[in-house]
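Shipment paperwork, digital attachment
Item: protein structure file
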Amino acid sequence: MNDSQDLIQEANIIPVINIESGTPITERPDYSISFDHLKTSFSHERHEHNDDKSDKSSLFNTSHKVFEKITGSLTALSKSLRDSLELGGADELEMVQEFNYDIDIVATSPDNKYIATWSLENGVLAVFPFDNHSGASNSIFTVKTPFNKENVPEQNAKIYLSVSEDGQYVAISRMTIMKESHADTPNMDAAVNVNTSQQSEQMPESSFVVYSIKDSRKQNDSMLNSMEILGSLTFVRHHTLVCFTKNNMHLFSTKYWILLKSVRIDALIYSSPRYSNISNEFMVNLHDILSESLKYGFLLWPEEKDGISVWDVNGILRQWFYVEAKNISSSRNLFAMSNKGDLVARFYEERKDKHGTLCIFHTPTALMISEFEVPKSTFLVSFLQNNDQIVLCSQKDQDVRVQLWDCWAGLLVYEEKWTYLNYKKPLVLIGDKFVQAVGNELNTYPLFPNNSPSVTMQALVRSSSGFETGKTGLVIMSSVEKQPGLNLCWGQILDNNNNKELLCKFKFEPWHNWINSEIFIHWLDSEAKRFIMAGKDSVQIYKTKSRGHNKFLKLELQYIWLSKTEEIKFVTLETRDESNPTLLHVQLSNNETVSLSLPGENEITYRALIDACTVIHYLRLQYMDDVQSFSRLAIKEQLKKLIETSIQLFPTAFNKISLGNDEYFCPMEDFILFGWDDLVRKVIETNRYIPLFHNEEQTESALLLLVELQKSELVELMVNYVIHHVKRRYVPMRHHSTPSNLNSDNLTKRVVQQPGFAWTLGKTLLDLYKYYPDKGAYIMKESSYFTTSLEAPKRILQTKLGNPYRGEERSHHSELKSVSRKARLPRGTHHKDTKKKSLFSFLNFFQRHYSYESSIRHDTGALIYYPDSTNYSERKQNMYKETYGIRKKQRKQRLEDAKKTHPARLCVVPWPDFCVYPPLLEDDKYPSLFRKLYRFWNLYISPTQRSPFADVALNGTSEMFSEVVMEAVIKFKWDKFANRLFLYNFGLYLVHAILFCTIVSIESDLVPAPGGKRGWKGPLFLIEIIIPLLFLIQELRQMSGRWKSYWSSFFNYFDLASFILPLACSIMVIIREEPPDGLKSFAVLFVWINALLQARAFAGPGKFIAIVIEIGKKIITLFVTLFIFILGFANALFVLLRDIPPSQIVQQYNGTITDQNTGQITGDMSLIQTPQDNTNMWQRFDYSILATYFFLGIGWDSVTTINPDPVLYTMMVLFSFVAVIILLNILIGLITDVFSGSLLVGRQAWLRQRAELIAELELFMLSPSRRQHPDWFPHLIYYEAHLDAINNWKRKLFIEEMGELDTDFVRRELRNVKNELNDELKELKGMVGQIRNSMRNPIDGGEIGHHSRSSMVSV
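Attachment content:
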């Protein structure tokens, strides 16, 4: 032990064992470990004994071992250091050629191309390559690890394996489990402090070794060694290694072995089920889940009493699912995630239940799409690769029962009992194959092999001559009918017993152009009830039925299957039962074999329905341009009938059907395009349909398709269906009673609203308002004040509302308040702790120092002091002063924080992804230059991808912003980021406006005299060129992005004028040309006007501007009428007065000249005004228009100097009567009326303007990556609303609904009901009188009557 300590001291190594107590585990900074002096001291000795090992002496160049960290004791650390430095020991890495011990742990790489195994007996780690066709090959790497049964106790440690996606590295981690201990003692204080003593101990660190399979270079492990890793090392996609410390998750690049990112996960850890600060047992359950979900790049995290959260490795919240309370923490759970992360499965079972439950969640919508009972002994849950189906393995006796479930339909597709799988051995599912460790080998088994013994195998023959049954003598034949442009294949059923009489004729595969009629034909029974036909690419099974008394036959399609690309090569019929064939093996032209499970004679199977829907989808793609020709085919009605008979049996089968290879389709799309409205209605009426997008780009849906095709009835049905399910609270399959005390936190059930049903509603909202405005308004009203509580994640939403069981909820906000969302985990602070500590110590240096030290007792938390030279009374005085100051500050802060509160509710905008932009599309691996430029243009210059909100804001009408739901969205965006972006933009514009107006106003001449200098004007004009040019570029981007709608907004004209005119003035000054005064004056005018219009984003000026614009829109017709009226009078007066010479119009003044001295008149004087161009304004038509306009208010000066003319006076009277008296007064009254109405619509018009401004900021001020910010563009938007506002809104809706009723009809009905009640009351009074008479005169008299009367009185 002394040698070990000396070695550590000599090497200057900081131990990985934290021996401090009473302090939490902190992230240590990076320590650089230098072994150069050790290598120098020992290299000479090793060189004398063995020159070959000199290269291995370096810590950074050892064989295959990349990282190593062994924790647990100083002895173990010393041994690890000695082994790594080869101080008299054996080789560091012991390679194993073969081993004969059982495999205990199996793990796979993220892409399932490599398998890692580990044996507990001898600690051997092996890596095997895996191929989907051939299975596992021989091991490519085998090594003996330092972990085995001696240092891995079963109850106190656990081993985790991980392989990189390229097979370059493999990691093994040992996690030591520290369990919580409970000690009994009669000392109550000691019992309370048991947990405190345990808490002082640090959580045990994990030991790990990372091996390199393909090279032998060891990396610098100083950073990993400096971290106190508390979990396993996991390789994820994109060459990344993930490790966990107490508060952080770290991501390392396996290409360069550098730290890429650190994410704080302490909030997740504290919310984990069974979390404990004195035990790490809960971490074992977490790492069991994370080891699988991290392979796909996600953190699947169970939440206490809330459900499950899904995060990506960057710390961004993808979704939050809600399950029953207590189940995660009190039951056995298994989790699984699909390859793309869009589906999450959770299995749980409780002791009191007879069965387990499997829940399937959809990540984009947060909906639980399926919930069904499964065996309680389930031990493996795994999704099929590239398919929306899930496999469950459970124990049945000593064997394994394997089940295949369809996630979207919630139906059991296949089930089989396997005898050669062992539930006690490690078992994994890779692709469509099971891999299980048997001894020291890996065995591969295909999923659902043909285990049952077959009776016969019959190969069908391709022929056209026909196939005859044994009893009935019916023959099926095929023939080709040549038609212009298309040759059809006809199937014919003939009666051999009646001279080959034709009983039925039908088209077979009419979508092909046939050359010959050779197909596969076979009767499935001897009574000619069913037959099978296989042609070029389809397999069809028909049932024969007689047409009543008619001798002809009719066919009913029972099953159909279609190959998408390949043609059928061979067909083999397998019979497992003596009577009915069960399997049909179809070999395609690419030698791929497809096994089809055939239905029974009167059986409708789920596989038959799925295959029929797939055929409809393929045929719809083929007949996309000519749907009418497909409608004329008989098979169209056969397919429709087959689907119709299956709707009630499998109502959930029409949500989404997977084709494999990450391809899927939605049958509702095909039904709508084929015009099968009755099937669409029946599917919706089953109440099991989930509206989804039909493509990956999320641009097509059933509702959008119905709107495009103008199917009004189905649009109304779909809208009502979506709103109904959004408002309805979901009740899971398992029902528990709710306790009477609602204030208790021990709830056994959480009821959750389903806004995910409206996933497709946001993209359809704009089209609904265009073509179905009543439905759009209905959606807006139903979505406003949509209260929510239990499904709101408290840790994510920055609000105190959301729990109705704790009593009345209150908020201090005076109006509608958007709720901030924190859906991104903060960055790790591992590398900043030392800097913060040094900064705080520097700041504390200048603080006032006292002669005593203060600290806090760890047991009570009280503030105590330890002065050096004071007695008890002085200490008491100092403590009183200190606590009084603290108490005063706390009181002041509390009074400042105290605000008036109101009853409030937490509400949600029930439109998922309404503000979310589509994900960024990835380019090809080697895109061309044109492709790069095209992508750059569509992403940065003129963004083409928009969110539904941006489409509504830029192209919607003001009526769409009349409801509270849109106001909540706009307020959230404005408070979150848009206000800051706008203030930056508006502040820069004010700088431009002030500079330009100031420069132009100071001096009249902007350009100096020849030879003069510009002086202070030169730099300012350069600034005035740069700023307007930046704004002009933004306008050009907007113009290119929305060319049509850009010119429909008059705000853009003022924007262009306020940028172009000052820019032109500045450029002219730079080139030493004086701008015209008119250009300068108009530039200043437009700059000021646009400054006012820019302020429309604020509520005050914005509402005023909106009202002015609305008034202008309403009276535009009157303005046009007045303009035409002025134009007509101007033309008439122009014709009348244009020939009058100006000399007859000018003013003439006559007078006399008087001598001031004598007062005598010395002569006469006459003054005549010199005629100008505008003396007679009626000589030019443009001046005539201006003169006529002056008649409205300025006066009649242009005609008062003209000689009186009856025609002129008549026109003056007509104009004054019509224009001045009638039209102007109508204009005044109309403006008054419009203004009173605009006060109501002014707010929604202002919201429309602000929304448009926000959309422009999103598209042209934010980068594409910023538009993916989860906190700015969340999945759902929450807001706080006053309870009074909610009640007033509900009352308003009720009044509107009642206003649609016929009040007279209701009044008449109430009167009739009143009359009927009066009649009934009279009859009842008569019956009571008869009873009283009978009581007074009883039949038997005596005591009976007395007792009866007494009883009546008592009653």
